[in-house]
What does this fold into?
Amino acid sequence: MSVFGLLRPWIQEQPGETIIAVLHDLSLAARFCDRLTLLGNGEIVAQGTPDEVLRPELLKSAYGVDVDVRRHEITGALQVTVL
It folds into this structure.
């Protein structure tokens, strides 16, 4: 089991607690994080749920690359692929 798999049940049992992580793997962030903050050039580009933040136009704005964002057929989480 991954660290994220261990942390999710723990945080659900801890009302009012928050875990902050810095991730560069957007698909991993989409799978395990409830809220995201997308940064580009040191500025906040977007904040919200993975569905709100991991949108191709926002990722292009932040990173200058084209991406494909789709839902993984098994996990149901968003998966980000650089084109």
User: Anything to note?
Assistant: The chain is about 35% helix and 25% strand. The mean pLDDT is 92.
